[in-house]
Specification:
With about 250 residues, the chain is α+β, with helices and mostly antiparallel strands. It is about 25% helix and about 35% strand. The chain contains 8 helices and 11 strands. It has an 11-stranded mixed beta sheet with strand order 1-2-3-4-11-5-10-9-8-7-6, sandwiched between helices. Strand 9, helix 7 and strand 10 form a beta-alpha-beta unit. Helix 5 packs across helix 6. The radius of gyration is 19 Å and the shape is globular.
């Protein structure tokens, strides 16, 4: 499978997310000598997937390109999309972790890890996420919907708890797709007042430790220009790669 060979280059997000959305688009793919060499998914106003094994850029007719209001494009193919056509151009890194043994995870003194009670703590999860972002409005209903994903695993929802206060200092949520043995880190948050203590690294390593006996690899993505610099954190935890995907949006 092409995705398993190089997941961060083939798709902009975890495979299960693409499969969930794919029926909304027209698709085409080519197979040569038993290998997938081309994959594309689109509709009248969107390009959701484009991948070519030989890195040939897409040849999009001008009329279709003019109609595009949304595209997810790998850095290698960005030159085929005139920047002036899009009001929003936002880069996202995508990295991979190829599992090696993690025997233990160190936490700052006075902190400990606890599982999120996914049945009763959706309000608290939403509250922590909102405190960590300026422009993301997550509510308890949205959090509950994540527990209905086919890749949901309650053991991959964790808190780092401030032992003195008995309240969360950070949150980590990961998912696991058993069909291809892919782990994906979805939410890694540390409340502003606890940053700089190594809590984020502890969350990431603990989730990787919990995935290591099942996942063949784990992926993560995030905004390149996020002021908290999450890419630095993931690379310090062993994630690798240089794949960048661009979200292109035309307003109106």
């Amino acid at each position: 499978m092409a995705y398993r060979e190089n997941p961060c280059q083939v798709l902009p997000n975890a495979l299960w997310k693409t499969l969930k959305e794919i029926n909304k688009f027209e698709t085409s793919f080519k197979v040569e000598n038993g290998l997938v060499t081309h994959l594309e998914a689109w509709n009248d106003e969107s390009l959701y997937i484009y991948w070519s094994r030989d890195r040939t850029p897409p040849k999009i007719p001008k009329k279709r390109l003019d109609n595009l209001k949304f595209a997810l494009v790998h850095q290698d193919f960005l030159r085929a999309f005139p920047a002036e056509n899009f009001d929003i151009q936002r880069p996202y890194f995508r990295l991979i972790y190829k599992h090696r043994r993690i025997s233990g995870v160190k936490l700052p003194q006075g902190f400990h890890i606890a599982n999120v009670d996914t049945k009763s703590e959706s309000d608290l999860v939403a509250e922590v996420i909102k405190k960590c972002y300026e422009n993301i409005n997550v509510n308890p209903e949205i959090v509950k919907s994540w527990t209905e994903h086919p890749v949901f695993d309650p053991n991959l929802w964790i808190w780092v708890i401030d032992g003195e206060k008995g309240t969360p200092a950070g949150l980590g949520i990961a998912e696991f797709d058993p069909t291809i043995r892919e782990g994906s880190l979805e939410w890694i948050q540390v409340l502003p007042e606890y940053r700089g203590k190594g809590i984020g690294k502890s969350i990431v390593l603990e989730l990787l430790r919990r995935l290591q006996d099942r996942a063949a690899f784990t992926t993560v993505s995030g905004e390149v220009n996020n002021k908290t610099k999450p890419e630095i954190l993931y690379r310090r935890c062993g994630f690798q790669g240089d794949d960048v995907w661009w979200l292109l949006i035309k307003k109106g």
